[in-house]
Amino acid sequence: MLSFTEENYLKSIYHLSNGGTQAVLTNALAESMNTKAASVTDMVKKLSTKGMISYEKYYGVKITRVGKTEALMIIRKHRLWETFLVQTLQFNWDEVHEVAEQLEHIQSPLLIEKLDDFLGHPRTDPHGHPIPDKAGKIVEIKQVILSTCALRKKVMVRAVRNGSPSFLQYLSKIGVYIGATLTIVDKVEFDGSLEITIDGKKKVFISRDAAENLMVTE
Amino acid sequence: MLSFTEENYLKSIYHLSNGGTQAVLTNALAESMNTKAASVTDMVKKLSTKGMISYEKYYGVKITRVGKTEALMIIRKHRLWETFLVQTLQFNWDEVHEVAEQLEHIQSPLLIEKLDDFLGHPRTDPHGHPIPDKAGKIVEIKQVILSTCALRKKVMVRAVRNGSPSFLQYLSKIGVYIGATLTIVDKVEFDGSLEITIDGKKKVFISRDAAENLMVTE
DNA sequence: TTTATTTTTTAGACCGATCTAAAAATTGAC
DNA sequence: GTCAATTTTTAGATCGGTCTAAAAAATAAA
Description:
Two copies of one chain form a homodimer. Helices cover 40% and strands 17% of the residues of chain A. Chain A is of the alpha+beta class. Among the domains of chain A are: 60 residues, Orthogonal Bundle (Arc Repressor Mutant, subunit A); 74 residues, SH3 type barrels. In chain A, helix 1 crosses helix 4, helix 4 packs across helix 5 and helix 4 packs across helix 6. The radius of gyration of chain A is 19 Å and the shape is globular. Chain A binds a DNA duplex through helix 3. Chains A, B: Homodimer.
């Protein structure tokens, strides 16, 4: 059984390692956990003895198969809860992350399966991220960053990379949502900002920063 | 902000003090928290400095107005979550307590208000216990213990006092539920067991122990 | 390839929640 | 009212998660 804190470390390791494909360095983990490298070293030893990661001094950590499954279960819970909050309780998509950070630690396999049933087995959460299934299988939809798309090509918004409340609120404000159709009308050389149309109608400018945080498909 | 543990202590104090009316002794609290008296003394000091209880050495603790409100909020959350689990996610009434013990600690006023809205502002939880409102007001329905009722009188099951899974499963098995109409057909002098009819049909024997854990109204 | 810089680990401490063992206060018996 | 039994508190230790400061290893620079 993992503690609240251990679960958070494991989740961070999973994300920083791109789903377990790369090693994660101590300092990177320290930064993402808002803690100090010394604390990370301690925790990493513990997670290692629990078989969640393999840890070699000075070489960073690698998540194990067991650890990956564990991480995916936490992510599954997080995303199912986010979906519940938006879909059932009428939260806005920028309000759910913090609450889901708490709810993801509730221990009850029955609860999460019943929640999944109730929600109708959603494939993605309100930010467009895929929800791992019961077995930990995750279906990644191939998508690209908006800023890399060609001019005049119709693309559909699939997910946000950075899900910070302020970014999400901004998107809502200008009318961008998951499923919206965008077209790049113009690229501004100077600052990398884009002029786009939303659903063929509204025409707005978005910054390079925003464009780099929108994932789309053609 | 109270920790998980502090919240559990406060809830126990609230219950053991009958809603804040009596003082609670150290040993009683230790027993209900499955811990040692020494640990209770430490925690009680902390809750006292936080203004949740007043503590006087060797005389037990009394919950303060602030502490009572805090306790009622935790109870509100617990009971709303139990209602959600049964009403929305199709849990059986004997499966919800443990999960609600976890969910009651989620910190989000918005969540609990939205949950309350979604559930349609239920007045009681699946075990018949009243749900405190947003302001901490709790409407106790005057009810009596089944074993004290007169023979032949029709009574309605309102709540269970002991909500242990085994008791609840037993009740389900014999067909007793919140809202059922019971009539005491006979009292057995020897062991205090009762012969009752359920909804005027089924006739069963229940033990004194069971009869003392069913709350009814006439 | 030796030195300087960065990264990581170790050592030792603190805090919160718990424990055991022993001391102190209260209660009950006579 | 004194002594024994019970209850409660204190003292000191442990454990998990964190920290700072210093040591050690790895990396980059000269």
